[in-house]
Amino acid sequence: MKALREFKIPFVGLKEGKHQFDFQIERKFFDVFEYEEFEKVFFDVTLELNKKETMLELDFVAKGIVNVPCDVTGEDFDMEVNGQFKLLVNFGESYNDDNEELLVLPHDSYEIEVQQYIYELILLSIPQKRIKPRALRNETLATEELEELKEKEVKQAQVDPRWDQLKQLLDKK
User: Fold this and answer.
1) What local confidence, expressed as pLDDT, does residue 140 receive?
2) Residue 70: CB partners within 8 Å, gap ≥ 6?
3) Which ranges of the chain have pLDDT less than 50?
4) What residues form DSSP beta bridges with 44?
5) pLDDT value of residue 87
6) What's the pLDDT score for residue 81?
7) Would you list the domain boundaries of the chain?
8) 103 has which bridge partners?
9) Which whole-number Å values give the CA distances from 156 to 73, 123, 141, 151, 159, in the listed order?
10) Nearest CA to 12 among 115, 119, 105, 118?
11) Helix (H) or strand (E) holding 103
12) CB–CB of 61/45 below 8 Å?
C-alpha cells in the first residue's frame, strides 16, 4: 500500500485542543488499496483531532455514497453510507496497533497516518445486505428477473383441472 501524503497529519506543531481535518474520498483512494468492488464512490470524511497533553483523540465521521449492486434485483444503485469511528492515540516505547480502538506511537513520533483508518471505516460502514430502497417499498420492480419470478408464481397458483375432478370424488363420499 502506498501512503498518501494528504492523509499524514503532523500533530507536533498543533496547539492543545480540537482541530478539524476534512477529506474527500473518491475511487482513486481505493485504487491505492487495490480494492475494486465498486466503481463509483464519494465520501466526505471529517476528522476531529483533540490534542491533549499526553494523548490524542481522533473522531472520524464519514458520509457518502457508494454504487453497489442490489442483492434482490442485481441492479446497481447509489447507497448512502454513514459511519463513525473513535481512536485514542497514546505514546510509548514502540508502535502498537493490536487494539482497534487504541494506537500506541513511539515517543519520537510527530505525525499520524489516517488513510488506513478511513479505508476501514468506509468499508465497515457499508452494510453486508445491500437492498435498493425501491425494492423494499415496491414489489413491482420492472426487471426481467422479477417478471419471470412473478410468471412462475402465477403458473403455480393456477389449479390443474384434474385436481378439481378428484376433489369432487372426495365430496361425494
Assistant:
1) 47
2) 76, 77, 130, 131, 132, 135
3) 140
4) 24, 63
5) 93
6) 92
7) 5-133
8) 89
9) 22, 41, 20, 9, 8
10) 105
11) strand 102-106
12) yes
Write down the pLDDT at residue 57. 94
- Record the pTM: 0.71
The answer to whether residues 107 and 92 touch, using CB atoms and an 8 Å cutoff, is yes
Contacts of 118 (CB under 8 A, 6+ apart): 7, 23, 25, 29, 45, 47, 60, 62
d(CA 61, CA 66): 16
State the Cα–Cα distance between residues 118 and 120, nearest whole angstrom. 6
CA distances from 124 to 3, 93, 101, 118 (A): 20, 30, 14, 10
Nearest to 60 by CA among 52, 68, 50: 50
Say what the pLDDT of residue 73 is. Answer: 79
Q: What's the pLDDT at 115?
A: 92
